[in-house]
Amino acid sequence: MKRMLLLLTLAGVAVLMAWGFHQAIYVAPTEATMGDVQRIFYYHVPNAMLSFLFFAISFVSSILFLAWRRSAPERAQAADAWALASAEVGVVFCSVVLITGPLWARPVWGIWWTWDARLTTTLILWLIYVSYLLLRRFADGAQMQALAAVLSVFGALDVPIVYMANRWWRTQHPAPVFGGGPDSGIKDPRMLAAFGWNVLAWAVWGLMLLAFRVHVERRQQKIRQKQTVAALAGK
Amino acid sequence: MTEASAEASEDVAGVDAPEVDVTGVETAGWFALVGTHLQKDLRIEWRSREAIQSMLFFALLVVVLFSMAFDPTAAASREIAGGVLCVATLFASVSVLNQAWTREIRHDVLDALRLTPADRSAIFVAKVLANFLFVTVVQVLLGPVFFIFYNLRPLGNGWLLLAVVPLGTWALVANGTFFAALSIRSRNRELLLPLILFPIFLPALLAMVLAVKTVLTGDGSDPHLLWLKMLAGYDIIFMTVSLLLFDTVLQAE
User: Fold this and answer.
1) Among the partner residues B187, B200, B202, nearest to A139 by beta-carbon distance
2) Whole-number Å distance between alpha carbons of B48 and B37
3) pLDDT per residue as tens digits for the range A97-106
């Protein structure tokens, strides 16, 4: 039964991703000035939005871990698993953003990369969360969990800066498509649909990944706990 | 307790007799605590001169290395000098920031500090102040050498450097002290500090480099001192978060 549900979920996500791909590549009209290259937008922007979502989950979980770590250790462990898993998924999404960005920039700007505020702050965000994952490898035990949670709070400080970068500064990165000025927003309904389907598909995919990762991490925590108890009992 | 031993214990406690409350636990004001910790760090440094000497020599090496590697002309050196100064300070201070806390681990001083009923933020602020003083001394000594080696003459308002450099140094030292306290708990602590500190410090580095560059080239690209304000904002935000979270880092078990 459990296996069936799992397979159904996987199949559903695969169908949704394929539908999103179909919408982005075949249904949405070709953009007037940039041509087919613009279709990267349907991947780049949803991934960027979702990486913010996952870093936010990591931030909230880290705060919860710090709050619960003395009073409710079991809940704190769950929060730690969420913090780690969402940081990992967030780094994956942020990597997709950093890869698709230059792929689009090369034909449109003529350069792969420029050090403008949006690009630089996004790269810094990626670096901070990679250092978070490194910290989790370099230290262990409950102590590492607390230290990692602290670092995650620092990383979260960078998220609003990235979000505001192309609103505060005049960047080479395009102005915000949504929530920018009165002129922003997608006008063509088919483009908007393709964008919406891709946000949904990538969100479902990312959340599924997150759920699996949390599940695995919880099991690993339990294994470690058992090992510790066994070691203390001298077996 | 005899009178003599009471006198002796008061001597040990320090010149300023701490207030004794009803429970018998000695409490001292926050500023007195910062002062005591700072005095201790400065005295250790005065006797050993480890931190300043090693930083000074290291930063000098970096300045020479960059000069050899790029062989800049006068115009080009104005452009890159700010960056070289910041990076030299950054690399030099990382080794010392590690030392600042490893010193406390020897003889379990850090555990003793954690057992005291004092406010933990005082320990942190004192450490930051001490490291800030060390780095500033290095910068003051290195500054003239730097200007000579790179044939610099600020074309903009040179006095602004007196605001830019301390603010940037504060950003580096406050974060560095915080993350050094964080990374001493890990297995390979010496390696971890730069890995965590550099990404966090990057925004401040960027602001500092661009502010110094504006002063040296005098190109008037930043009439509203935007980078300076950004640096100040960064200092305030990160110092606040560090103060809030330092207790968690110190008590992480």
Assistant:
1) B187
2) 17
3) 999 988 888 8
